[in-house]
């Protein structure tokens, strides 16, 4: 391969012209012939037995050109890119300028290159880091959770139904005196006050006792999902079969000892408080970092090729689809359910993709400006951590990972830490201001 020229033809666009000599082209043609010959028919010869010259004479000299040229592109293009010292962000568009067995092949490649960006400010950035104080109310909320987890359902037969009870009912719905499809059920469990049924339905059960049969009058909402019912009045004939209530336990040393690893409620509350404080610290640190990274995005300037955003959207869509499959759902079904087509679905990821690509470029620039490097020891430590967590050897991990990208990721992570270490905590910035910025 010989690189003839490397010319900038537009922003983030470079034109490469490179050649492959006749001998290399001929060798590529021979490889193509050897791969294809077993399937080639030439009159007078058994299948696969005709020589290359006979095949070329019968089918034309260029019969193997396409495969040979594609092989040369795959083999020689990386060297041309490396010699031109380019970092591409998209598949190059390659044109064959000329192809001749004697003179070889000349290629022209239009390459979209990684953009050069600037980061106007990344040291001394200000962001809030408000750590929430843990109050008795927060601890009481945890106490309520343990009560709910250890609650038991008991039957009630000595009073009427109340809000928060679970009732077991039979019902059948009528419109203009005619029963309608989907409006009936037997022994249906319904928690009163849950809002599971049409507004007003659950309230009209309150005050009734077991065995009562009564009418519930409601009107379907104007925006009801079944248009034929929207805005129409209905009568449900209801029979109340059973009433159940939730009985919550007292939280004392005995309950704590039975349900946790602690012996007393005081020990448990102290542990809960420590965990809530740690969660508050973690949340504040995350919000602090998010605010700083948003500032880096805003301070990063440059012309970024659209293909970089498109590729990131591709990844986000692929990740989302993989997540759906783990839940047993297909993307097409999801789109039908949400009323979106693929174009609008992809569009929903645009802002996120643009932010993530811009942030990545900004952090890479910061790493460059600050001469951030990753030591061999740090790389080995990270590989070992991955290996240990996946029950693999370090060498297995090294073989599976694209190491250049892996090291770049470590540099970017280190750039994040650099921005945080050089930032200023400013709690006068409110949450609303933080979101706006």
Features:
alpha+beta, single chain, 437 residues, 46% helix, 13 strands, 4-stranded antiparallel beta sheet, extended, 21% strand
Characterization of this structure:
With 437 residues, the chain is of the alpha+beta class. It has 14 helices and 13 strands. The strands form 4 sheets. Strands 7, 8, 9, 10 and 11 form a 5-stranded antiparallel sheet that branches. A 4-stranded antiparallel sheet has the order 1-2-4-3. The two termini are 51 Å apart.
SSE diagram, text form:
Layout: E1 2-10, E2 13-20, H1 22-36, H2 52-59, H3 65-83, E3 93-100, E4 104-112, E5 118-119, E6 126-127, H4 136-149, E7 152-156, E8 166-175, E9 178-191, E10 213-219, E11 233-247, H5 253-259, H6 265-299, E12 300-301, H7 306-326, H8 331-338, H9 342-347, H10 350-369, H11 376-389, H12 394-400, H13 403-421, E13 424-425, H14 431-436
Parallel strand pairs: 6-13
Antiparallel strand pairs: 1-2, 2-4, 3-4, 5-12, 7-11, 8-9, 8-11, 10-11
